[in-house]
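step 3/5: co-fold with heme C
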Amino acid sequence: VTFLIRTIDLTATGREIVRERELAQDELTIGRAAANDIHLPDLGVEQRHVRVVAATGGRLRLQAASTLGFTVDGRSTRDVTIDPAEGSELVLGSYRLQFASEEGAVAVTIRQVEEREGGKGEALGGFSLAHVLPGKRPVAWAGLLAILVAFLALPVWTHLNRAVAEPDYDKPGVVLMDASWRTGALSSVHHGLEDNCEACHVEPFVAVRDETCLTCHEGIGDHAAQPRQGVARGPLGPFDAAQWNVAHTLNKPGPGACTDCHTEHEGAGRMEPARERFCADCHGSLDARLTDTALGNASDFGKAHPQFQAVLTTGRGLAKPVRVSMAEHPRQWDGLRFPHDLHLAARGGVAQMARRLGTRNGYGEPLECSDCHRPTADGVRFLPVDMENDCESCHSLVIDQVGGVYRKVRHGDARQARAELMALGRASRPAIVTGRGRPGAYGAGGLYRAEFGGPATGAALLARAMAKEGLCGECHVPAGADGSLEVMPVTQPARFFMHGWFDHEEHKQEKCTSCHSAEKSKASSDLLLPEIGQCRECHEGESARTAEVPSGCAMCHSYHPRTGAAAAPPRIARK
Ligand code: HEC
Ligand code: HEC
Ligand code: HEC
Ligand code: HEC
Ligand code: HEC
Ligand code: HEC
Ligand code: HEC
Ligand code: HEC
Ligand code: HEC
Ligand code: HEC
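step 4/5: write tokens
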């Protein structure tokens, strides 16, 4: 017998694919095993299920090959004879096999009728529960509805209907099932609002708006004066514009909204600092729009950020401090004479004097930065140098000795000092030869002592006080007329870089001299501050992969105008 096996498969799009092959043999086997002539990958079909053999008169005999029977033309059977000329249908699992005569051959057309449960080869057919359950579509819809009710309708309904203003209740009613809407823990600063979502989410389905943040942060203020701030923002690119259009239909405020820069629900802990790109939106090409701005463009600390500019007084008698770029190597006028190099040298007069003073006087070793520069309580910067604490143990203002007690001029008050000198008359022991002598000539016994030029009178001291080796002029620049002890104002700015922030505490590991080349400075007019290049050894832009410290703008800048320490980014101001 010639069998013409025709398999009809349906593609995903519903197109029929017909494959044909011919078998010339007397027997045909049908089953799940691949060894069968007709292989039906369906668990409802046995390994060897049906055997087809030729019967008399061109007819065919279908026999069960193992335990299970089969269905032919609607009837269950284990053994049946059919006539292909009349046509017959064998059902096995999800398969329909049609037998027909075609030009002297027996055509067997195989189709799979029921939708299969899984991918090809995993069909469960008769073993699946599909026929006892409702169809998949209704189940899916019911599930979706249940989710909407539980997680959306219920919270919305309880939110809208809870008793807010009932006099009996001092607490608003409870919103049910809203935990499922939690996208992540609130930051630690807003932790107290964990039970008060409405503090920010005022209206359901409306994104958090600036007004809401401002109810608590009312004093926050504009970053820059309007309309300059508005002009500063660059026009949106087509892609951004399209995104914002979508965002606006969802009631999202912005660009420039609080929630652009301050995201919430990112987990307990500090709020994430504002991302660099939100600053670059305006500052990346600020000068193109704000053509009169004094600020340089900044979009990435490592690649595009202006050189630092220090605010300082550059020369004697200039009333107002000016802002000068570090690239110009500005000099500073601070009204003081003080060479760092001489005082920091490991050898020489100062080191020797420090050793002689010994540890009980707080010295003992050559001077270090910390002998004069003491950190502020928060560690961010340094206290101003103080003459009485930091200089006077060597540069004594002693003018007399009465009994065993030294008399000294009190520092810092020119008129008082002058009066004391006038009243002095003849000093009893003007030359101090203890370790407390003023530096000067290296005297007998290896001690520094005052060069008062022999027994002195107050008047003589006063006359020479403003000279370079004099009582005051050693460190000060005279400001008044002859005989006056008025000195030029001494300035020790706490900050030089007014547009950004620095924090010494975070850089304790570094040697001071890696940023301040103090040990080489011969005059106090040297400005000992680092340039931007020194920061870039570690700090580069937010996305710099190789940087030791990838740094967004918010690390060194705040955004909201404040005065004093409150103007610093929270991580610095908090200290
Ligand atoms: C301090 C303010 C604040 C509080 C309090 C707060 N959220 Fe949010 N929430 C936000 C911000 C900001 C977003 C970001 C999206 C936006 O602009 O609405 C957000 C987004 C969401 C989103 C994502 C949907 C969306 O609009 O993007 C869900 C959900 C959400 N919050 C649920 C809660 C729940 C629940 C609580 C109470 C436990 C809560 N929030 C408390 C500020 C807050
Ligand atoms: C119910 C009052 C309330 C609302 C509403 C509120 N905040 Fe706050 N926020 C606070 C309090 C309180 C602090 C802590 C202040 C502090 O430590 O000085 C804080 C701190 C902050 C901080 C400082 C974070 C830090 O690391 O120091 C930021 C930023 C902030 N809020 C942004 C927002 C934004 C954006 C919104 C609107 C989505 C908002 N807040 C809404 C009360 C509120
Ligand atoms: C362009 C980005 C940006 C926008 C917009 C913005 N902030 Fe800030 N904000 C910052 C930066 C930067 C800091 C300081 C560092 C940090 O914590 O991110 C800061 C700090 C804060 C702080 C804590 C420190 C302080 O100065 O008190 C609060 C509170 C705050 N922002 C609230 C708001 C509110 C409210 C709005 C909306 C009116 C807003 N911010 C809009 C960038 C932004
Ligand atoms: C909407 C536009 C806009 C955004 C966003 C913006 N700035 Fe500004 N910024 C300005 C304008 C305008 C000025 C003032 C310029 C002038 O008047 O010449 C300014 C001034 C400054 C200054 C110098 C003055 C000062 O206060 O020290 C710094 C630093 C600064 N911005 C940093 C930032 C940082 C950091 C961010 C991101 C957190 C940021 N800006 C985001 C518009 C913007
Ligand atoms: C004997 C005291 C003394 C010692 C020790 C000392 N300084 Fe100073 N320092 C001063 C005085 C006084 C000033 C202010 C006058 C001036 O600018 O020179 C000053 C100013 C500074 C300034 C301010 C910026 C400037 O250019 O004026 C820096 C920075 C500085 N010192 C760094 C250092 C470092 C770093 C060390 C250690 C390597 C150091 N100092 C050791 C007394 C000292
Ligand atoms: C440990 C002792 C010691 C301390 C502390 C000290 N000095 Fe001196 N200083 C000396 C000695 C010693 C000399 C003379 C060095 C020499 O000529 O070799 C000197 C010299 C000077 C000179 C003259 C430099 C010159 O070029 O002639 C000035 C100005 C000066 N000191 C200022 C200060 C000031 C200001 C402070 C405090 C901030 C200070 N010194 C702290 C020991 C000290
Ligand atoms: C060894 C160096 C030294 C000597 C000597 C010295 N001073 Fe000073 N003087 C300083 C330093 C350093 C400061 C700034 C720190 C401080 O105020 O303690 C200062 C500050 C001053 C100030 C305050 C200036 C201002 O603008 O705030 C006056 C006034 C002053 N001295 C007067 C005198 C008089 C008068 C004498 C002489 C009797 C004198 N000083 C001797 C180092 C010295
Ligand atoms: C990573 C660089 C760096 C290191 C390390 C560093 N400084 Fe500074 N220092 C700066 C910068 C930047 C400023 C200017 C800060 C400003 O203008 O706000 C400054 C300012 C100063 C000032 C003058 C202003 C003030 O805060 O009083 C003194 C003094 C000073 N540093 C001393 C020191 C000493 C002492 C050390 C070592 C313990 C040190 N610095 C380590 C970068 C550094
Ligand atoms: C030797 C490497 C190094 C150099 C150079 C350096 N920094 Fe840093 N800086 C650090 C490290 C490390 C941190 C801590 C980073 C962190 O906590 O994420 C830091 C933190 C900071 C912070 C944050 C301070 C805080 O309290 O959180 C500021 C602002 C800063 N640096 C500014 C500067 C400036 C400005 C310069 C140049 C004058 C500079 N740094 C040079 C390594 C460096
Ligand atoms: C590692 C610290 C650090 C980082 C990161 C940083 N800055 Fe600065 N920035 C400073 C310091 C310090 C100054 C102050 C210099 C001065 O006063 O001239 C400054 C000054 C500025 C100025 C004033 C410039 C001028 O010409 O007067 C602007 C604007 C500015 N930064 C914006 C930014 C923006 C935008 C970013 C992020 C892309 C950023 N900064 C990142 C430290 C930093």
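step 5/5: annotate
Residues 400 and 406 are 6 Å apart (CA to CA).
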